[in-house]
Batch of 2 targets.
Target 1
Amino acid sequence: MSISSSDLKHVLRKTDFPFCARETLVRVEQMCATQNSGRISGAKHVDILMEIISEFVFCEVDRRGSRKRRLNYIQELQLLEVLCDYFTYSGNSSEAVKNSVFMSLFPPTHSDRSRLLIKLVSMASSTKNVPVLTATGIWMQQLGCTSKFSLDLAQGLVKDYFVLIPKAVSGLQDLPQLAPQFTANFLTAVAEMYGVVEKRHIFSPPPDTLLEVITQWVSDNPTLCFAALVVNLQLALPLGGIPMAAITPFAGLFKWCILAPLHYADLSSCSDIPNSNDSLESPLYSCLHLALLESLLECCTPPPEVHHVVASASKNIISAQHLFAIVEPVTRWLKEHMRIDDESVRMRGETAVNKTLDRFAQVIQVGLVTHCVYGNIQELFNQLEMLPENRLLQIVINAHRNL
Amino acid sequence: MVPVTEDSNTISDEDYLVLRAKNSLKSDPFEAKAWMITAKTLFPDNFAVQFEAYQIEKAAKNVKEAAKCFSAIFQKFQEEAEMWQEVQALTTSLRSDMAEPDADFLRDMFSQIPLEVQHQLLLMTAEHSEDTMEHCRLLLLLLRRFPQTVPQHGPRLVDTLMTAEKHSHYQNSVNCFRKLLVCDLLPLLGSNSVDLPSKQLFRLLHKSIEFYLCYLMSPSKAIQDLPELESRIEDPWKNLFVIQEATGRKLGWELSAMFGHSWNKDLYWQKITQFHQACASVGDDHPNHKQLLYCITTFFLYCLHEYVTTLDSGGGEVPLVLVEAFCGESEVVSASVSASTSGAGESKVKRRKAEITDESSASTPLLTVARPANMVVVHNFLMAVRCRDLLHSSESLEREFTKLSQHLKLDSWLNGFLIDAALYKGRFDEAQNKIGNITALDTGINGNLRRHLRLASTFYCQGLFARSLEHILQVITLLPSSSMLTSLPSTHQLTNVLLQPSQSNRHLHFLPLTRLQVLQYCIKLLVAALKHQCLSKLQPDSDLAIGHIITLLQFDWPLEEELMTQLMERIRQRGSFSYSLFQNYVVNVDVLEEFMYLSTEQGGGISLDVMPSVQITSQRRISTRGTDKGVKEDFKLAMKRQVARSVEPLDNLIIKFLTSERDLLLQSLE
């Protein structure tokens, strides 16, 4: 393609929005394809891509490069439609080319486009647009599921979707089957998002609707949490792309379940009405905890019985580091809690801590038995020793120390 | 929340985990399960923990999970007594169809267990079972679920079942072991490529035929030592045909392939005769001989069974008996048929059908039934007769069949058919002999009724009318009661089917054993005998016989109006008629009118000595001279009194006539 940048822009300027966006996507795809085949590359090429995307797809700048007014809502909707259509109907181009188009559209340098990305993914979720969701899943993984970009996207989606739409649960039921990798990476992101320990609180609980959807997803799809590991990312990336390691949602989601009792013990001791609904731990945590354990067991049953769904895949399922990171907030919570004089509050706290430790021990046990924990396991045990005494935890430590 | 008591510190780690799981079972089943998972992975070699996990899943009715636990435990801890109990509960539930929640759950669970574990489980339980019946049932269950194991275990199970039956000393072949062998195991063996020695195959075929025959013939349909629920066999003939087909296939029999089709009997018969003709050219000692014997026998028994069942009122129909009926001259009958419109269409249909089944109508008797729906009995009868003829067509076949029927103890219930066959072939002595044999066995009311009807019928055929009458009188005492006792026999019920125009010289009828039809038959039999005895010989003193006939004809009046006309003509020719029983038994209006007419000048002024009362008052015969008006008036009055009696139920009147006037009847029959 020997057409120069100015010629290209000239051609594209002949059509109006949103047709120019559609035309531009075709051109971008062609350019990505040649790039993918390794013929032309270089900064110049990338610049042209970025320029035409900015001018003709998102309409951020005019022909002279100065800022334009933001698209109005109707135009935005038209653009989303063009994007969805492009990913749905560009049947000829390879996965890798499509992903490279997607990454060119939403590069880390353009965090301002995340608003539109959230809308695009929301739309794709509700219309079950698998190609867009798949591309998004890869985008998340390449940028890092726990990176700011992915977290922004996750947060936007939760706000747009799980909180806003009351019947979201039923609509999203088959998402794990349609776009497993996207769903898994989304889970990793939200798990991180709500697992962040804030100043006063030990953990920020996710909205009930989100918790409900996630619990159902994991319960119904034992392989869901492994989905990002199973995909061979190399094939989905442009030539020379370096696949980023997947982070499974296990550690993050387990963290919710382990810390939830402490959080709600706090709430019930602060609240005036100790038994109000908000201050009680949702039974969903118990259910999610079980679903995660079963998921590990089902997919990583130890050798003699061969069930290898993931057996041959990378064993990097739960990082020891992620696990022992849970120890710190627990001990911190305990320290604060010791200061409370109220006997009944302390008692309640003790029950909560035991529940936390029981769950923690169960995770360690199942994780180790299934060989899903990787990293410095010795250090993990050292950290666990710092926790208060708990019979199950002791049993588990003894069982595995001796090995 | 969780009651972690002080003593939990003293119990073992295993027990602690199980306790925690149990404690949280009610408040939070998810938590309980998480505890159980932890326990299971911590102590994979501890039976108590693993079994507890299973119990928890079972209690929660989680079929899939329970199946998983169960399979794991079964493979690891077969020696544990508790596990063994559970295994037995499982196999018991598999063999029953009881709709009970526990059994239902276990059955569902079994279906979720991996196949190889299912297989192992059934085999192991069977081998552990000390009771033979139990052992066999379990093996059968295994074979049914895993047909691929049939070659391995099937032949051994055959031996086990046969030995078990032998050692149990059952009197009857309808017993539990035989049932398992024939109904459950053989069909499995048949469909599978299992090789058995041909001697064994013959033995199994024998046992199957014997079992199904005895089963079909037993009125209770109970199988010894089996619960009632298991004793019901859906379609015994179909089952036997399947076995016959499969056994034949293994023996390389060409003919037995026909049992694999559900054809009508004509097609079966066609196949058999084709094969037989092909064999005939080869010679007697050919191996084909055996297959001919067994295939014909099975088909013969099939037809025979249906025949016998229909005769014995199988399916709620009226029971039937085959008797000699009558052939009329065509024009006489067609005249009377047109008189009763309801009979006309019916008899035409029958005639046509009978001609189809009988190729050579001149030499073979005509067979009729009372209702077209019963036509199948004729078909079955003729098929059975043909099969039997074929089985007796060569010396060696006959010899083999005799041996086989002795072995199968066919005689007892073959007898009824053989009587009918002898009657059909006109061998009346043989029929009577066989009737004599049957008395000991068949003592029911229908048995006796049938016996006397058959005897009356055969003696009549032999011209021994007096002896025939003896049995008719026995029949009269055995007549079934009828709900129609008070109403008059109408032409709707009684037809002229007993009298058929036929080119052949004989006519046999399947007589329904109802009061009216049996009575009608007896009357017809007597009328025929009286006609034969008196009318044909043109005896001078035939008034008594004519009077009897007139009395009897009233019963199904006007079916035989023609005969009545003939008799009246005879009386007119003779110019006088004397019948002392007239006043007692002649009540039919038409008949009485006819006599009134005869007594008038236009009627010929016949001298009638029929009213004893009239005779007594006048001391003179009624004459037409008009000299004795009083006498004439008295005669008229007497006739009027008779007319008034015409509403009396005829069946009772005729029965009274037969029983009270036995001597006078005998007199005209001798």
Note: The longest helix of chain A spans residues 343-369.
Target 2
Amino acid sequence: MGSCPGAEKPWDGCSFVLSAMRLLCSPALYGKVLLGPGKALLQLSFYWKRGLFCSPTDEYQGSAQAQSYKNLCLLLRAETLLVKLGNHHCFGDHEAKEEGDVAEARCKKWDMCAAEATTSLLQVEENFSACLARMDALIFKPLLQSEPSDQKGKENFKLFLLLNDQFQALWNLTEENYRIVKQKCSTSESFCIQDIYIVWKGDLFLSLYIQYFVTFANYVVVHGFEHATKSKSEAWKHHKTVLKQFLTDFTTETSMSLALYTVLHKPVRDHVEQYILLLNKLNEVLQEGSEKDIVTSAVKEYVKLKSFISQVLDEACFTKTLWKSLGYKFTDMLCVPERRLLEDSKNLPISASTNRSDRILLFDDVLVLIQGNSFQSFDLKLVWVDETCREKSAPGPYGLRIITPEETFVLSAKDPQMKAVWQWKLNQAIRQALNGKRDFPLWGKTGEGTEPSSCRFFTYVFRLESKFKNASYEGEWHWGKPHGKGTLKWRDGRNHVGDFKEGLEHGFGICLVPRRSEDRYDCYKCHWYEGKMRGYGICEYGNDMVYKGYFKDDVRQGFGILENFSAEHPFKYTGQWENDKKNGYGVWEDKDRGERYIGTWLDDHRHGQGIVVTQSGVCYQRTFHADKMVGSGILLLEDDSVYEGNFTQDLTFVGKGKLSFANGFILEGTFTNKSGQGLQTQGILNTSNEQLDERITKAQLGLKEFPVEKRWKGIYDQFLEFIHSGCKEEMEESFTGFHIQTSKELRKSQEYLFCQRGTEDVSWKTEDILEELVQHHELGSLQSYLEKALKSSLHPLGKLLKALTIAFQATYSGIGANRHLLTMAQEEVKYYAKKIWEFYQGLLHLALEQKGQLPAKCVDGEVSDQKAYSVVLPLILPCFYPELFMLYMLYHEREDDLYCQGIVDLSLFPDIKLLEFLDVQKHLWPLKDLTLTTNQRRSLIKDKCFLSATECLQKLITTVDPREKLLILQKTYEEIESTVSRVVEKDYKLPMDDLLPLLMYVVSRAKIQHLGAEIHLIRDLMDPTNQGGLYDFLLTALESCYEHIQRMRLHQRENCHVTRTS
Amino acid sequence: MMAIRELKVCLLGDTGVGKSSIVCRFVQDHFDHNISPTIGASFMTKTVPCGNELHKFLIWDTAGQERFHSLAPMYYRGSAAAVIVYDITKQDSFHTLKKWVKELKEHGPENIVMAIAGNKCDLSDIREVPMKDAKEYAESIGAIVVETSAKNAVNIEELFQGIMIRTVCSSSLASWCWLCRRLLVSSELAAGLGHAAVPAVLGGVCLHRDSRL
């Protein structure tokens, strides 16, 4: 900025001298001009160089000014152009003096002011317009006709065309507005602010001027005028001679280009100053008001424009000089019309630490380090300047650390001032590069908006050897590293879209990896942690397999489900993974064979104890060794017979074994199976046993082998870790799995980039969850809170329950419904309740801690278990009920059959007969309820007595909650009691002697299917504190009825037997 | 708050011997402020203080009819004590009692406390079972024995006190001497119970104090 001091100083009445000065600033002109000019000019330049223009008005009043003016005119001889130019100033000055008198009458109306302003504007514009016309005729037209043929020239010509376009636009705008106002002037006397179009249409004018000068500067930078003057076209050659007559002093080629440069920018530039003068005058005479404000701000804008123009031109000259001084090697690569040199280490010494660069160039878009014949350039958008040397290799006292995506180096200056200037210039250049707009800030300006943001968004291709080599990253950056959201793309088609942190994948991301042989991709939607997959993810493999589960260090680890959807060998594995392989407890379903393996795994093989259930209901437990069955096992057949010994996978007996038949016969011996000969055996058949022990036929598998605490550890571990890590919102999905809505959306579209939180009516942000936990930890609201939480697909507890449901179903649904698995399943559900309660406690503890409240002292395990059963179990039971009840039904199948037959028998009895049969005391019979219609005999009426109790008991199957079932039982009793009280007409407390027969009556009338399964489910899952209490008693009473009905049937059968044999 | 110890007690005995009457009588004079729900006379509870504890009796009635005998195990499983009731005016009921004792010994819970109650002692003039027979029988099986009258509220409290002391005999307050089959009660507990109650069930102090402890 030092090169054009005049630009900033508004010198009244001395614009012309200033224009001359402008010429002088250019060193190229300096020599040439001084050859021809008179002494005055010499003096001018002398004074100027010494900075003696502090009060030019005094010194250059009168003769000096006039002289210099004349001299310059002579000097340039471009009368057609420059005399006009001069005229402006002369007229301007004259007017100014004349109007000095006018200015006294400031009180004049706006009309007057506007009229005057309009008149002077018209005058100025008229001259300018004429000037532009001459520029067009003498310079643009001839140059446009001479399109060069060489490559370089063509490129420049394109720029010239652009310049012409801008010029024409500017000219047209001036002409057009001038004409309109002129017209108005001739017809009307009244004027308004709209007529001062340079104010009213200020933006349009400003932008056209800016565009013109920017284009002009681009043309200057590429040495456009030099090339143009050398044009070989005939038209130009001819024209050149004509032009030369005007520009006599510019006889050489160089001076010719200089003259062109001058005549193409100077008049325009000076015209801007004319505007400023004019507006300033107008402003002075205006009174305070909205119009004045508008004019004031317009003046400001034009002053800015003026300074903009001078800076643009300065930079263009500076850059042009650089290109001239650099070798072709560099200019070919670096020279772009729009690029501007901002600083050069030759001007302002600084050196780079690495590769000992000899020159550092700061452009408006790149930073270039030159060393010998090579150079390195860094896009400013990805350059960070760090002055606080935070790393070990401190950049020295006056160093600046330059951080770029792949390289970091230090620029060291000799002194703090130098460092400060470079730092400021670098930061300003970066900021402007980021904004995509040049704004020429004032030196030293600091504060808001003057520093470049450290977070950027940009695309970059990694070149150096690293994890990301050859990948292009498009996204957010922070201090030289991908940070925030972004996309990485490799040439082989691999790409990663997601969150980054300090240069590594971190957070959620979607990664596509092409498969080697096929034209398909593995698609990972997963959480990353410091560059590696960790936490919950979904991987859709290109071979139709899908993995949903946890990862660690890029491999499958923890709980996960792998499902093969292809038609060939479809399977599903639900269980534990270690090091990318099936390891630990897991369930494998072979969908082709209709088999399910429940057991332990080692490196993708069945290994250790395992249970196999098949479609046909057969079930066996064995030891496996690398997928092979070893040793002997127990085979539980569908017809209740049991085989203990060795057998093959297709269930043929081999070697020593013991086969126990359902009728009690036991065959013990050695079995062989030669092909085509069927099963052969040698052994002893024991027929002495009456019936096979229930302990064998109802044997429960897997209890010792797979203790409930060791099942699904992978699920619990993640939640535990989540709590231990402090329940960070951003880690929530990584630990507990995707939100259901999210994963649905992910499935819908592979291009879908980032998770969007689904909206439920309640906020399930982690902090809100913790807050709510604290609010609801009293027992009253706890129940409803937990119910809501467990139903939500976004609450961690809800997600935990969901995961457990999936694991449970994978084991016990479908072919897993086998009565030998009942205890395993029942234990598991109870354990879930216990774990969920534990996690709830953990969350609550954390929430209280975060609120600064001291969590209550840890309650002992027994109380905690009790809570789990009384609070949590009823809430989670609905999720497991279908599978669990199915297991109970299978387990109690035979008893239930017997009971059903009993019920059928009893249902044939009319009411009175049944009461009699069950020994209900006569005075308790509700005979009044037996209303008779004609043709009915009382003794034949059915289903009328104790109807209310019967109907109540039938509701037992309408709920899955053991608590509610027990309540129904209690109500049933109350109904019985109230009926009896009605009959005996007083409060009657039923002793068991009376109650049991009545209850039996009600049970036999209620005809509940699978009553055995119901009773046992209630007993197993009810709150253990009920033990020995009222509900236990009621349930026992019900159970005894159930048993009794079965036995009645047995007795009948035996009696039949006896009578038949006798 | 005092700790509550729950005590499941089941009632066995023929129909008509007054099983539920005994319980009704026992429960009638309620110590509780809040009356716990019951199932008629079939299931009742009563809370009684004992030392610094509260003992809650959960009393399960059973059906006395012969045809329901086979269902009894469901009711007495998990019981701490069984009260077997006979009618002193009916020899048959004493026979049934013996059957119950036998069954309990074979299939009942281990260490179940048995208490024999000869009910209807207000009708001793038509007595069929001599008191001596009952005492000797009880002695032979190590059971508590009392003759009660539900009608006149005789020995009802004492019966349940005895059960309570027996069931807590593993605690520091009382211990059971297996040689002389007597209960050793600390003075503290005895004071808590009231002196009158203890000798009615026990009498004397045992010399074999260390024999089983």
Note: Confidence is low (pLDDT under 50) at residues 170-182, 186-213 of chain B.
